[in-house]
Design a protein that fits this description.
It comes from Streptomyces citrinus. This protein is of the alpha/beta class and 526 residues long. Helix content is 38%, strand content 14%.
């Protein structure tokens, strides 16, 4: 990325952010810029397939499964059937799915094996779709009483693009009610568990894209898509040993997604590794006339190339480009300090990586803390009708929706000014000395709409996955993938899978589901 290109990207991002705020305020597209060209279809990389993937189709990454099918070693029916069998056997414990469309998935797989249907890079790949994406003819309940009977007559743009690339939807992933917290029933009873601790539903699986994360981690789907307004792609990815990519605001259309916040809603993949995330985002990204946030943006870079690590003749991995990685002082604190120190040591050993100490501005906590509450009024606004008609329909999450009503207009305006100030401090200050930035939480980049990637770095003493979140410059998802792919080329955390639930765990898990209180749901709300 040249300095000129980065400057142009920043100008485009600033203009797009201002336009998004204007649309959120007025409900009108003031001046939609012309659509940029649709990105080129991604090409399947020629990768080595691990022995584990050859032995068990459900073990394969998206790229491995696609390569096996291309080489005639695996059929779409075999791949879909392998995942449906695991759903039948284990989803009573995981509860990753709100709806399974097995018959339709098998029919699509048979058609693909006969040479019919779309012939894109996802051909024959079984996927899980978060239940806030419209799916034609399939219930889309958003885990809420409000949408209990809703069956869309069209696919969301993201779902349509996955299908057009040959992807097969296995079903709808369970989620937090209206995408606000970890997956629970509307009354607060926990449903989806962390795939790494199926016998202990109290372990946080991350939310609200809980089901899509659990489905991929538990090998009930090859890959998935979620949404993020307050960490809901990167946090469940960290909690369940996945690679999640929240792109820059506008990279992926959210047309046909039940809204939470017009200025913060993002769509993106939860995948098994950096390459899978690159393939998924390559399919999903691009302009959509139905979503003005996607128009007039810089071209989507070659994400598959970015996720292909460079390996020298001697086997040493090196970065595609020299990359300065910002490390804030609070990164090496907390329970994961030891894992993060080991992570930095490994990262520092990759040729082309330079670790840079960065400092937050003095008002960082205020800008990313108190002003973050402005999101509550944005998400409450489109639901005012239901709040008046039947507040009980919001169930355990009602408190956080009522909180949105308590924020005044002048407070919201002040928060927008604070957001502009924060954006300047991040782009010109914190990230002025680095290309990407390690983070201790997703909130700052959720507020701003900047891209983030989450990937695994090890496990806690209790066996729960641990990961990191890396933030990037506007529209530089490729740089994030380069770092994640290089790290994954020298580690194997991302290849590890959880053990299947035992019979005892299945009984214990089914009998002891905790229940969130209204206060807990509000505290953990996106």
């Amino acid at each position: 990325m040249s300095a000129v290109s980065r400057t142009l990207n920043r100008r485009t991002f600033l203009a797009a952010s201002a336009a998004t705020a204007a649309v959120a305020t007025t409900g009108t597209v003031v001046s939609a810029p012309p659509a940029s060209a649709a990105p080129a279809a991604p090409t399947l990389p020629d990768i080595d397939v691990r022995d584990a993937a050859r032995a068990d189709a459900s073990e394969a990454t998206l790229a491995e499964a696609a390569v096996l099918m291309k080489r005639g070693k695996l059929t779409a029916v075999e791949l879909v059937q392998a995942h449906l069998e695991r759903i039948e056997r284990y989803d009573g414990t995981y509860q990753a799915y709100a709806e399974v469309t097995g018959d339709a998935a098998l029919a699509a797989a048979r058609k693909a094996d006969r040479g019919g249907g779309p012939r894109g890079v996802l051909r024959g790949i079984p996927l899980c779709v978060k239940d806030n994406y419209f799916t034609a003819g399939v219930p889309t309940r958003c885990n809420s009483n409000i949408f209990a009977d809703f069956v869309p007559d069209e696919d969301a743009t993201a779902v349509a693009r996955l299908r057009a690339a040959g992807g097969i939807v296995l079903g709808k992933g369970q989620m937090g009610p209206l995408a606000t917290t970890r997956a629970t029933t509307p009354n607060g009873t926990v449903t989806t568990v962390n795939a790494w601790t199926p016998d202990d539903p109290s372990v946080d699986p991350g939310g609200s894209s809980t089901g899509p994360a659990c489905a991929v981690a538990g090998r009930l789907a090859v890959s998935s898509i979620g949404t993020q307004t307050g960490g809901s792609i990167v946090l469940p990815s960290n909690q369940q040993n996945l690679t999640g990519l929240k792109p820059t605001m506008g990279r992926v259309s959210i047309h046909g997604v039940i809204p939470l916040s017009y200025t913060r809603d993002h769509a993106g993949p939860l995948a098994r590794d950096a390459m899978d995330a690159a393939l998924m985002l390559s399919v999903l990204a691009g302009p959509d006339a139905h979503d003005p946030r996607t128009l007039g943006l810089p071209a989507v870079p070659d994400l598959v190339r970015a996720a292909t690590p460079l390996v020298g003749r001697g086997g040493a991995v090196r970065m595609r480009r020299a990359t300065r990685i910002g490390v804030p002082a609070d990164f090496l604190t907390g329970a994961a300090q030891g894992l993060r120190e080991a992570f930095l040591d490994r990262l520092d050993g990759i040729s082309g990586v330079t670790l840079v100490d960065v400092a937050y501005p003095d008002d960082w906590a205020l800008l990313t803390g108190a002003f973050n509450a402005a999101r509550l009024s944005e998400r409450t606004e489109p639901f005012r009708h239901w709040l008046r008609a039947d507040p009980a329909a919001f169930g355990v999450s009602l408190l956080s929706w009522l909180q949105g009503l308590m924020i005044s207009g002048d407070e919201w305006i002040t928060a927008q000014r604070a957001k502009t100030h924060l954006l300047r401090e991040v782009l010109d200050g914190v990230m002025g000395r680095c290309d990407v930035l390690l983070q201790t939480g997703p909130v700052p980049f959720d507020i701003l709409g900047l891209p983030e990637i989450a990937f695994p770095i090890g496990f806690s003493d209790a066996g729960v996955p641990a990961g990191v979140i890396l933030g990037g410059q506007p529209y530089e998802e490729d740089r994030l993938l380069e770092v994640a792919a290089a790290y994954q080329a020298v580690t194997d955390w991302h290849t590890r899978r959880p053990a299947d639930p035992s019979a005892g765990a299945r009984l214990k898990s089914a009998a002891a589901r905790p229940r969130l209180s209204a206060e807990e749901a509000a505290a953990g709300s996106a």
